[in-house]
Amino acid sequence: MPELPEVESARRVIERAGLDRRIVDVDDSDTYECRPHPPGEIRDALLGRRLVAVHRRGKSMWCETSGAGRSRKPGAILGVHLGMSGKIVVADPDGRETDGGDYWERGRAPGDFRWSRFAIDFADGGRLLLIDPRRLGRVRLNPPVEALGPDAAEATPAEFRAALARGSAPVKARLLDQEAIAGIGNLLADEILWQARVLPARPVRDLARPDVDRLYRATKRAITAAIAGGGVHTLPVVPYRKPDAACPRCGAPMRRGVVGGRTTWWCGREQE
């Protein structure tokens, strides 16, 4: 699934290129991507409005919309989930494109909209599209975000400590719990634990204060680096999550297991 850095890159695309443009048409015909809305329901909610702000908490992203015409009453909230391979693309009439979101190993050529699952047409001729080859994203009105924990990029030390404060869950499983702390996915969790030198299967109740402090600092560093580098796939330990790989820090064999239901890799020396 997309992780916080990829969703943040998509949010920045909308903020930079998709706001304050009047909406004149919407393609919401993909009934799976736009579930539970029937075709036309999202379109009716957005026509004549503008996207006026875009927000993110963890992996969830949503846009506020303006009143229609001269009305000052705000419109519906538009939620967009990228799925496993989704990108937001803003295409302008002059051929310029701005995109952000999950990375594709094969890249995306300009004008390649074969996998467009949802599109907004602006009055100036531009378009905002959700490009989603695997069709695992989702677009919906007024998405529920209240159950999410604090955003991993913005959590305070106290909020982070509270998320890891009690229980017998493995620390990796707790990092992946979006209701505890939002935005950390499988690759990012492995990177955080590797940087902090903490065994992924270690119960959170066994973590000492220095362990939690290292995890907090590693979380901030990893997220900052992934956003700057273009995604979680650019983080140092990610290329070494494979058989027969050695830890890039100490040279010990990388270990593989399942923690919290997810394939997990860790250093066989520094994280044991």
Outline the structure in words.
- The chain is an alpha+beta fold and 272 residues long.
- The chain has helices at residues 4-17, 41-46, 157-163, 171-176, 186-196, 209-229, and strands at 23-27, 51-57, 60-65, 78-81, 87-91, 97-101, 116-122, 127-131, 138-141, 254-259, 262-267.
- It has a 5-stranded antiparallel sheet with strand order 1-7-8-5-6. Strands 2-3-4-9 form a 4-stranded antiparallel sheet. A two-stranded antiparallel ribbon has the order 10-11.
- Helix 1 packs across helix 6 (209-229) and helix 5 (186-196) packs across helix 6.
- The two termini are 28 Å apart.
- The mean pLDDT is 93.
In short:
This protein has 272 residues and is α+β, with helices and mostly antiparallel strands. It has helices spanning 4-17, 41-46, 157-163, 171-176, 186-196, 209-229; strands at residues 23-27, 51-57, 60-65, 78-81, 87-91, 97-101, 116-122, 127-131, 138-141, 254-259, 262-267.
